[in-house]
Amino acid sequence: MSSFCLTLLQALLLCRFIRAQQQLLPGSCNFELGTCGYTFDPEYGSWNMDEEGHLITVDSAFLHQEQAVLASPVLDQQEWSCVRLVYQITGQGSLQLHLRPDSDNFDYRLWTTNKASDSWLIASVDLPNTTIPFQILLEGRPERGSNSSVAIFEIHIVPGYCIECNFEEHHLCGYSNSWNPNVNWYIGGQLTTENENQTNSNHRGHYMYVDSVYAKHFQEVAKLISPMTTVPMAGCLSLYYHRDQERGNIFSIFTRDELGHYEEIWRPEVYATNGWSLVSIDIKAPHPLEVVFEVEFNSARGGYVAIDDISFSPEFCHTDTEPTFDPSIANCDFETGLCLYYLERAETKVWSRVSVKPNAYRIGDHTTGTGCFLLADTRVTSRPGYVGRLHGPFLPGNHKYCLRFYYLLHGFRKVDNALILYIYDENNVAQEKVWSLAYSTKAVWRQVEFTYTKPMLSKIVFVSICENFWECGLVAIDDITVSLGDCQITAGSLPGQCNFESGDCAYIQDEKDKADWLRVRGHTPTSYTGPKGDHTTGVGYYMYIEASLMLPGHKARLLTSYLRGSSAPQCLIFYYHMYGSGTGILSVFLRHSSREHDTVLWRRRGEQSVSWMRAMVDYHCDVRHQIIFEAIRGPSLRSDMAIDDISFRRGPCEDPGETTSYSGFSEYFNEIEN
User: What is the rounded distance in angstroms from the CA atom of residue 497 to the CA atom of residue 560?
Assistant: First the structure.
């Protein structure tokens, strides 16, 4: 606690002049006279007000649980706003900010940090516009037994976007200076010139500037960096700048993504301005970003650059700016057709849209297990070999695209040319071979993802080549998606989603049953039962029961953490795998305190398919509850059952269509339907 006292004066000075002119919205609090309507979640530990006021803390020495949760009053702010948070982590721990929409099962994490510091830090978190009332949750997690603590000095919620700033506040809206021993951005007072107009000279106030006077080396660089936005940004960035280039400086504005990739978005056309000049720049970023203001000096007589009044609008600055392109026109799961994909006329019989009935021998599609996918099959052609090309729709140039798709192989002796991906230009000329199959586990849907950029109009083309009938088999593709941005920048999983790739998602093993669910990857140890890979990528993790560790009739139960309940209907979606001649029963239950017994929501009995199958379950519960996945071992060792890719969304579920349940034997086990 002493470290907080040492830095309390610093924090008071930091926020002394905050928002004298800017409106503070409900939910703001400086903790001087109390908690401003913020409350402690009784399910977790408590935050403690400092005896002298001004801050609220959670200390590992007094915390008997893993975390303490501070909840704001219910807020009804329909316009875009920004949370400015002054905080400090001492020792080891983390602080998270969540959004809790009214009548929703889940909290949505917007921001997290585990950065320890001996001083107060500023965080800026965007709150997108919404018509649904919500609460802000602050979750402090000091590491237990390590003399750690998490403290919050101030919460300010202001209108507008977090990258907006007029630099009148001492916290500089969360902007940071990339330290250079010689040239840095500083806060300036009134900047006047003889030719400056009267309006600007009267109202300019504070601004940020960088001067070359202390530059000692060639190409000295100063960077001013905005807070990282928490959402994608598309619209108009505006600011005033003042520039004097006596002996040379280079002023540029960049965007920088989470991977550290820079993109220059503006550079001035004039070396000097007579006064403050307004510039408006269109930004189209499909991912969170920082704005970087960079000035490079070549000597101590390189002049200066000043900026002020940074603002943002969701409307583009210029009418000729093309709207943000939606690449989802290239998405296809082949459930209702080929979408915008097409085959070359001479090869129309190579690729076929097919479906497979649930069976114990042949894998169905990736989307649902019972739907359609695209198959290249030499046995349906009249030639001993083939070259099959599947063309996608044209996509505009100068965009970064992330392409994902799934493929499946069966029967190939050589996989070198089984599946190749090219980028074609608008003249149908192959520009680049971007991916080819080198090796693959057969009979498992595998995910491929890669990022590409082309300066011209282009399209993706899937090619399958078979030179010899006796060396070729079946190659299938499904669930093609194209999105803007780099594949390495993931949107993150939504609350309630779990693919088990990074853990068990806080699912709980029932201590009263006879066995546990196991998290594994690859195939299960017993032959002729269980999956060969997960549903998410084909090489990832899933949860399953190992029948050889159980006796017939033994149960294994896996429970979600507690869900708050919602007044709206809910849709539970998950994938299950029930393959094996001795497969038992897989059930989903709803449990809540107002009912003595768990309610059955969904059930399957016996062998269903060698494929991963999709389940969609509607339910409604407006009180605190849990969802339970229960597997009962069947009569033989071939009774492994698995689940993967669990998600919740607002219901009702979309109509999954007619699905054919399979149990045991089917005379159509090898039938492919066109």
Answer: 11
Give the residue among 159, 166, 283 at the shortest CA–CA distance from 232.
Answer: 283
At 8 the pLDDT is: 40
Helix (H) or strand (E) holding 298: none
In 3D space, the residue among 581, 642, 580 whose CA is nearest the CA of residue 612 turns out to be 642
Q: Is 235 helix (H, G, I), strand (E, B) or coil?
A: strand
User: Dihedral of the CA atoms 107, 110, 116, 121 (nearest 10)?
Assistant: -130
Give residue-wise pLDDT tens across range 489-511.
Answer: 876 667 889 999 999 998 999 99
DSSP state string for 490-507: ---PPTT-B-SSSS-TT-
First to last CA, the chain: 70
Round to whole Å and give the CA distance between 38 and 190.
Answer: 39
649-666 CB burial, b ≥16 within 10 A, e <16? eebebeeeeeeeebeeeb
> Whole-angstrom Cα distance, residue 645 to residue 447?
14
Q: Which helix (H) or strand (E) holds 592?
A: strand 585-592
- Alpha carbons 314 and 10: distance in angstroms, whole number: 36
- Reply yes or no on whether the pLDDT at 3 is more than 70: no
Start-end of H helices in 299-438: none
Residue 63 pLDDT class (50, 70, 90 cuts): confident
- Distance between CA atoms of residues 259 and 268, nearest Å: 26
Instruction: Read off the tokens for 312.
Output: 């943002």
User: Among 31, 174, 155, 26, which residue's Cα sits nearest to residue 95?
Assistant: 155
| Cβ neighbours, 10 Å, residue 65 | 12
CA distance 622 to 545: 31
329/401 Cα distance (integer angstroms): 13
Q: Which amino acid is at 40?
A: F
Q: d(Cα 566, Cα 104) in Å, to the nearest integer?
A: 5
∠ Cα 350 354 359 (to 5°): 130
Pairwise CA distance, residues 608 & 630, whole Å:
16
Nearest to 24, CA basis, from 154, 207, 122: 154
Question: Quick check: pTM over 0.70?
Answer: yes
Calpha distance 523→610 (Å, rounded): 12
The strand pairing partners of 649, in sequence order, are: 571
Per-residue DSSP letter, 359: -
